[in-house]
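Structure catalogue
Derive tokens from sequence
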Amino acid sequence: MIESDRLFGIPFFTTHIDPTLYDKDQLVKDIKSNYLKNPTRNEWDNLSYLHHSYNDWDNPDYINVNFSRVQAVYNKIIPQCLQKFKLKSGAKGKFRIVNYNCMSENGYMAPHKHLNFDFVGIHYLQFDPKVHVPTEFINDFAQKSNVFVDDVYTSCYKSTWRMPVKEDMLCITPGFLSHQVPKQPKTNKLRMSIITNIQLELVM
């Protein structure tokens, strides 16, 4: 089931990725192995504290994680999600996995956007809602007010919003939406996610 809503007045979509449709256990095992080699693998910035593959995919020191089977699942579900955005006839999306990240206690990813892409998908591969902190979306145009309940429908009045995500959820949001991964608390379970950039094009 695909659900849609609006965050800061901006549409987003979430859906469940069936873990039995791909080699989830192997992915978790390989990512964990890479993490244990270097919990602070980061060729992206000087602020974040995490292990991730961005700008470092070809590093021979790490296992070349095989995402082909989960990519096949995305190939089916992402186009269905994109159709919920009411695209023009002939519009299609190109998408590819651009990063995986893994973090534990004190793990943090600095605020950023995916400005060169229409959407970004975050697949929560391993996530415990009881201990892990989800991605935090940042409202660059917040008009604060204390009269609204704390709800996604009134999130346009909040400076930040954390979606109530679960393990195996895929969340798709516009690339221009600022987001970060807040500092993670002490936990024995690694937080893992797979990131996919999505670009739309009109095929005539």
About this structure: The mean pLDDT is 93. Residues 27 and 155 are 34 Å apart (CA to CA).
